[in-house]
Specification:
This protein has about 400 residues and is α/β, with parallel strands linked by helices. About 45% of the residues lie in helices and about 15% in strands. The longest helix is centred in the C-terminal third of the chain and has 19 residues, at about 270-290. The two termini are about 20 Å apart.
């Protein structure tokens, strides 16, 4: 059995994943005290989840240490470590947006994003060890790591990956994969929330394209893990896959830009995983109806999914911490209604403040421990399979249309 970990996006909400991963590492240590390696040989991430995924994958030889490091980073988080919060940076962005909406037609120029996330590039270099990814792959502690982004230039949804052995690069409608050496630029691209953070220029097939958040148009978040040969997938989301409503009673009058924006971001970050899990369950039911001798030839196979999602509404937690944001950011969000309780969901994606992230870490830990028995059974089986099988993992490249 090959066990995969899939981490979804959600900006600052991804702090929840750090807590869930810490609980998973604790469970893994209890199940197999002698084994320090991660039970997840396949790790896939999108948006902020891509950053968490890379951190975990780079410590595949010591799962507990990797999870603890991730908790440390998120526990000490501040907004100015992710995007510029100083007056020149924030005011400059506001002026560019204002100019674009007034005389932009004359200059034929548009602002790149609402915030400058240059600090995030420095944080990635400081917090992540990209050279360790190759080491984990060579030692077979890790089978594959993938990061997904959307090309604004071509509309293609690309999964960039590193693997311990060649994998047949899949191609679906507007979805494909490329084997590359992952860099901070790939993570910046995958986590570039539309309009909020700028797109990132990457080279693909000899030409340059601009990429943004991988959660956009991600109709099959589980696809990479399945193509890498996963039989069971643990998915950690950054929000419950259900419609969010304002933290307080609806206000009279026209909805603010923040209220509209929160629904747009919900469609980007929340809708796809729920639909993909439902599709997977449908495929599993169909596979059970196939004769056993036909299943391998059909290209369809049974893949189990266990999803961990917040048991509390994130926007309600965010509403309690809005004042933790720097004054400059609150002022900018105030222009779109994002500094009020009704706009807390929108603001939560930008709330990179330790008071908020620590509360999400604690919630993630509790939610994962609540599924301890299921997770322990999966981890025990993966650990037994890993240590009972000698030699490199088998090749998993070809999959039927029903699985990916």
């Amino acid at each position: 059995m090959r066990l995969a970990l899939v981490l979804m996006g959600g900006g600052a909400r991804a702090a929840y994943q750090a807590g869930a991963l810490a609980a998973l590492a604790q469970i893994a240590r209890e199940v197999a005290p002698a084994h320090r390696a991660s039970p997840f040989s396949v790790v896939c991430g999108t948006s902020a989840g891509a950053i968490n995924a890379t951190s975990i994958a780079s410590h595949a030889d010591d799962f507990l240490r990797g999870a603890d490091r991730l908790v440390d980073v998120w526990s000490a988080m501040r907004a100015n470590r992710v995007y510029r919060t100083d007056w020149p940076g924030v005011v400059g962005a506001g002026v560019r947006w204002l100019a674009a909406m007034t005389v932009g037609w004359a200059a034929r120029r548009s602002p790149r994003a609402l915030f400058d996330n240059t600090p995030l590039a420095g944080l990635l270099h400081e917090a992540l060890s990209f050279h360790r990814i190759d080491q984990m792959l060579e030692s077979r502690a890790l089978h594959a790591l993938s990061v997904t982004a959307l090309s604004y230039s071509s509309g293609r949804h690309l999964t960039f990956y590193q693997a311990s052995e060649p994998i047949h690069a899949w191609r679906r409608a507007q979805r494909t994969a490329r084997m590359v050496e992952l860099t901070p630029a790939h993570l910046l691209a995958s986590s570039a929330i539309p309009f909020i953070f700028p797109a990132v220029r990457l080279e693909v097939d000899g030409r340059h394209e601009y990429f943004g958040d991988g959660s956009i148009r991600q109709i099959a978040p589980l696809s990479p893990a399945i193509h890498f040969g996963a039989d069971r997938i643990v998915v950690i989301g950054a929000a419950a896959a259900r419609p969010e409503v304002p933290a307080t009673a609806p206000e009279n009058g026209y909805p603010s830009l923040a209220q509209i924006g929160q629904q747009v971001l919900a469609s980007v970050f929340l809708d796809s995983i729920g639909a993909d899990i439902e599709r997977m369950e449908h495929v599993n039911r169909m596979v059970l109806q196939l004769p056993h001798v036909v299943e391998p030839e059909s290209g369809w196979r049974h893949v189990e999914v266990l999803a961990i999602a917040p048991s509390e509404r994130i926007e309600l937690i965010a509403a309690r911490h809005l004042k933790r944001l720097p004054l400059t950011v609150r002022g900018l969000l105030g222009a779109v209604g994002g500094n009020r309780a009704s706009g807390a969901s929108f603001a939560s994606y930008l709330l990179f403040e330790s008071e908020f992230t620590r509360e999400l870490i604690d919630l993630g830990r509790r939610d994962a421990l609540a599924r301890r028995d299921e997770l322990a059974a999966w981890i025990e089986r993966a650990d037994r399979n890993t240590h009972d099988t000698s030699g490199p993992h088998g090749h998993h490249g070809q999959h039927g249309p029903g699985t990916a």
